[in-house]
Write a structure and sequence with these properties.
Layout lengths: L2 H21 L10 H5 L5 H11 L1 E4 L14 E3 L2 E5 L22 E7 L7 E10 L4 E7 L7 E3 L2 H15 L10 H5 L4 H8 L14 E4 L2 H9 L3 E2 L3 H13 L5 H9 L8 H13 L10
Parallel strand pairs: 1-8
Antiparallel strand pairs: 2-3, 2-9, 3-4, 4-5, 5-6, 6-7
């Protein structure tokens, strides 16, 4: 290419750059805009923080005793909450922005058996203090003494789903939502946990907003057996599962024993169960709403 051609090309390029600078005065030589560099969308963390804090979640009313503590056990959806446990606020691994995992938290739910493909059984889920981080336990009533233990709720229930699908020869996904199966994602359970002493001291947790559902909705929930006091059948089955296990915390057994349908228990035995429940972490709930 001759020098005249090079000069002509350079002049044309310079003219285009000059015209571009007139139309877009904040444009750099590399074509990037100052506005593009200085104005960035909000981070995902900030957006998630806003969504959690601003969203108002509807919850079912849960009865309290004279001291303002939630009365256990209580039916929440398909879960029977036996014990709320106690918040370990001084160790970061026991909560995140959305959930708190109290040590001693215990729930029961019905799900497919890992042994008999034709049966559904009661599963008991609970959390223990594992030191630096919580441990999540899941135990089936037909496999007592063989709890699945995992550092995450999702890991524990994924193991259950994998075995359930294997014995039924199903090619379903083995993925599980730990917060759903343990109940942390349910608004009513989330509120009860948030009302425990120490929730406001969890450094990463974002306090959530709740409102009690209207009375007509409450009646519908209770009618479907998804709220209020657990049925006698569920209490009886749950108690049998608890009493057969050697792995479960005593506070969970006490929670069911207080309202056991077994009328043959002595008054002294009932009183002992009531005292044990009263002294356990199951009723260590703040009276503030």
């Amino acid at each position: 290419m001759t020098s005249s051609c090079l000069s002509s090309s350079y002049d044309r390029l310079s003219t285009e750059q000059y015209e571009l600078s007139l139309d877009y005065p904040n444009t750099h030589e590399n074509g990037s805009s100052v506005a593009d560099i200085s104005i960035r969308p909000p981070s995902k963390r900030r957006k998630r923080h806003h969504n959690i804090a601003s969203k108002v979640r509807s919850v079912q009313p849960v009865s309290r005793d004279k001291d303002g503590n939630y009365e256990m056990p209580v039916q929440v959806g398909i879960l029977t909450v036996l014990c709320l446990g106690s918040i370990v606020w001084d160790r970061d691994a026991y909560h995140n922005e959305r959930y708190i995992w109290p040590a001693g938290y215990t729930v029961q739910r019905e799900y497919y058996s890992m042994k008999d493909p034709d049966k559904s059984v009661i599963y008991t889920c609970w959390i223990t203090d594992g030191g630096d981080a919580p441990l999540f336990h899941v135990e089936a009533e037909d496999m007592t003494g063989e709890p699945i233990v995992s550092p995450t709720a999702t890991g524990a229930w994924t193991s259950v789903l994998r075995t359930v699908n294997q014995i039924r020869h199903r090619e379903h996904s083995n993925s599980a939502s730990g917060p759903d199966y343990f109940g942390f994602s349910h608004p009513t359970i989330a509120k009860m946990i948030q009302d425990l002493p120490g929730a406001d001291r969890c450094r990463s947790y974002i306090m959530q907003r709740f409102v009690e559902m209207k009375e007509r909705h409450v009646r519908g929930v209770i009618k479907k057996g998804r709220g209020g006091r657990p049925s006698m059948e569920m209490l009886s089955r749950g108690q049998r599962a608890l009493m057969a296990s050697s792995s479960l915390p005593a506070s969970a057994r006490d929670a069911v024993a207080v309202r056991s349908p077994d009328s043959s228990r002595s008054e002294a035995g009932k009183q002992m169960s009531v005292e044990a429940l009263t002294n356990s972490d199951c009723t260590a709930v703040s009276s503030t709403v």
